[in-house]
């Protein structure tokens, strides 16, 4: 039993260490555009019965669980769960700062040719060799339009306007306007199942389901807001409280290890 207590306490310390690491990552990204906080989900491990019902360790008659003693074997982290609630929108007044006021994701073309999904709308224009400009994210991944192709604007454009439905209108140097495309947003059956790839980019998984590309403002995707960015949804106060709780739980588990060690020491020092 003492050995079992050691294993349970050690497992609890490892679980709380993972929780502290997750909280630290959340706090580190408190100013990361479009960042979604994570939390750790725990699960208790198997139980064993030291004595069969009715044979030993009998509880008081009439009480719940009388005649049965179950001993737990600890805890294990089973998943890190993303909180996909929307962060606050912050005005930047920059032309290619875009925010999604809803549940949709921007689509970007990753370096390996696959499609990534992001809530980070801090885009910029990049010159190409074909006389047009591409709209890219901070890592240089092209922003995709509703048809899944990189969004391009003419080099003669002096500025662009993006409305709530994702329509991109270029204002040319001569004062004329040109419709250059429409930004599509991806929605998922279970956005919490997306896999983080770093660089503020997610990829679809079996848990998230396949992306459905919709027009902004439809299908729960939300509308676009030009000149805004979505802030991280990390709540600093909540994370600090969770950090204190995790630290105290770690300390209690370490005390359990010390107590079990002392009990073993006493048993080893017994004399006949």
Question: What does this molecule look like?
Answer:
The protein has 272 residues and is α+β, with helices and mostly antiparallel strands. Helix content is 22%, strand content 31%. It has helices at residues 2-28, 236-268, and strands at 38-44, 47-48, 71-72, 75-82, 89-91, 98-101, 106-109, 115-118, 124-127, 132-136, 152-154, 157-162, 167-172, 177-182, 185-187, 195-198, 201-203, 212-214, 223-226, 228-230. The strands form nine sheets. A three-stranded antiparallel β-sheet has the order 9-10-11, with no helix packed on it. The model has no long low-confidence stretch (mean pLDDT 87).
Largest pleated sheet: 3 strands, antiparallel
Residue stretches low in confidence (pLDDT < 50, at least 5 long) are: none
Radius of gyration: 27 Å
| Mean pLDDT value | 87
Number of strands: 20
Q: CA-to-CA gap between the ends?
A: 22 Å
H/E topology pattern: HEEEEEEEEEEEEEEEEEEEEH
Strand content: 25-35%
Instruction: Provide the helix percentage.
Output: 10-25%
Number of H- or I-type helical stretches:
2
- Helix/strand/pairing class, anyone? alpha+beta
Strand order of the largest sheet: 9-10-11
Global shape: elongated
